[in-house]
Amino acid sequence: MFAARCLGISLAFFVLLYVPLSLAVSRGWRFCVTLLKPSSARRTADLLFALRLLPFAVGLAFTLIFTVPSFLLLEPRATNESVGTLPVILGIACVMLLIIGLRKTISAQIRTSRAIMKWLEGSTVMEPCAVVPVFRTGNDAPSLTVAGVREPKVLVSEAAVAALNPAEMRAALKHELAHVRYYDNLKKLLFRFTVFPGMGELESVWGEQSEFAADDAAVNSIGDALDLASALIKVSRLKPAQPVPALATGLLHSSTALSQRVQRLFSWKGSANATDPRIWYALPPALVTCAVVAATYGSTIAQIHAITEWLVR
Q1: pLDDT tens across 113-152, in order?
Q2: How many domains does the chain have?
Q3: pLDDT tens-digit readout, 79-102
Q4: What does the H/E/C string look like for 199-246?
Q5: Is residue 122 a contact partner of residue 82, using CB atoms and an 8 Å limit?
Q6: Residue 192 belongs to what domain range?
Q7: Which secondary structure element, helix H or strand E, spans residue 267, and what is its range?
Q8: Distance CA 95, CA 249 (A)
């Protein structure tokens, strides 16, 4: 019974934090972006990703750091006290959210694995010594995409090979490898696990910003920018292939962002990948927060335990 109460209280506290924070993020992420004004597409994408995962991270951290220790340290083990109706309801809601997220995660992984296996039938290796393997596939595969999480692969269709010259192909491959370096497919997987309604627009904007960031990472000169812009235009004219699965990132994120990306590349004036010094501004508040938590930890878990006592009644 003690373990059941601990589990019920922990799940209840998690969902009590996760749901309100998720609602706040789904409604206020645009305000945060406007307020902080990231200096590049990479910073914007990182900020959106952090906001998207913030509710789950805060809920999990608070539960593990405060809720569970307060129960284990202060709750008597020899008691006949029941779990309580409210923690049971909240715990069931939390389990349902986790099950839905896990189902979406597994489904996305299975669909992507099946698609990769189908695309790789009859494929040949283009660059055997590359850190990320590059395969030349048939025309039923996407023109240019990076697929997979644990062992990502870059897939290039016959049509793309025929359409792009060597410089354009090199720029396009650098773009796809940037997605691997930034773990964009893994981030998509985390989005599916941390499920919550109303996050679709944030994820869509994150996808566009991650494409801009990959463009920036692939470009070191005006020549690279023009080659990548040319590759984007040529690939957009190819015959559309079957839809790309969830854990794959194609060269073209969406047709609506194509004109913006081409315009950004045509107006390239320098690297957008320099470190933003404003990131260090977050270090002092973080250190102060850690110090406050350490200094007040005992009283905090006592207060948390008092709240858990109220919940189980």
Answers
A1: 999 999 998 889 887 667 889 999 988 888 899 999 988 9
A2: 1
A3: 666 667 787 888 899 999 999 999
A4: CHHHHHHHHHHHHHHHHHHHCCCHHHHHHHHHHHHHHHHCCCCCCCCC
A5: no
A6: 2-312
A7: none
A8: 30
